[in-house]
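Open question from group meeting: does this chain pack into something compact, or does most of it stay loose? Before anyone orders reagents, we agreed to write out a predicted structure and look at it together. Recording both the input and the output here so the notebook holds the full record.
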Amino acid sequence: MQPIQGIRVLDFTTLLPGPMASLMLAEAGAEVIKIERPPGGEDMRGYKPKFGQASVNFALLNRGKRSIAIDLKKPEAGRRLLPLLKTADVLIEQFRPGVMERLALGYETLRENNPRLIYCSITGYGQSGPKAAVAAHDLNYVADTGMLSLAAGADGTPIPPAALVADIAAGAYPAVINILLALQQRARTGEGCKLDVSMTDNLFPFLYWALGNGLAAGRWPRPGGELVTGGSPRYQIYRTADDRFVAAAPLEDRFWTKFVAMIGLSPELADDSRDPTATRRAVGDIIRSRTAAEWQASFAADDVCCCIIATVEEALADAHFRARGLFSRTVKADDREMPALPVAIVEAFRSTERAAGYPALGEASALLPER
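Structure tokens returned:
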């Protein structure tokens, strides 16, 4: 039996943070029912490219879930949803603060009929505070917390992150963590609770070192100038002769010593405390003299914490990830199958069923009473 098998989750969310959170819960055994608006469902269904009747993004994020189509703005919506709301263990929503209350679906209203309900609200800025109602996206959240300022290009311009860090790492993951904690607490007390998950709040733990340096020593980080943000030759991206890139991270002295010996860096530059810029430039010149394949062969011969930056396509074909079975599960649509999205749920907690589809819009609407 899976860890949260038998737990019913009503998912009122769209796009990324909430659907990613409920995907992880579904993969751990929960029954997840998406609540979508007719006639088209959530916006991500219409994205491209397509995989079956919906977008591939929707397919990956909603594998193994069910769907109910209902217009929440209609007066009878609350009445029709009431049987599900009474039996739900978890509700996830990511509207702006106050929207669910206006729909008569706020926590205080629902707990009257279901005091065991765990009600998780995911927002950019939380349920309170001056910015609570401000519209924003991932780039705004990482900007507001100072994270975006830390990595800069050659001209000092901050570089947009390659992943939606706030949505996933500061939204979906904390939501799952706190839902599971709330389920544990409910097992002891019998009472549900409301969870306020703020993506901006949850970005600050990623800045632990910057906060520590600034608060304790008054050394606030320089954009692109710190140990892990581009300010050190020991943690750097270097271009190869064939215009590939080396991700070099020989931070510790034992790795740095082997690295500089491997590449043949002159002894006076190996001490990077003297002139880090000169050392970085010299290392860059050496890496630029050989191809990616040549460097990969050298890196494979000894541990120096260096590798060639892979494309996403190359990463999917990597023998290590294949050996781990990372992409062995599939999502189905019509007569097609593709690798499912890997999730942070260990294999022992997941279903033995390797293939699963995503829900057609409203396929579970029969769970609701007639109008």
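Observations to bring back to the group:
The chain has 14 helices and 14 strands.
The first strand starts at residue 8 and ends at 11.
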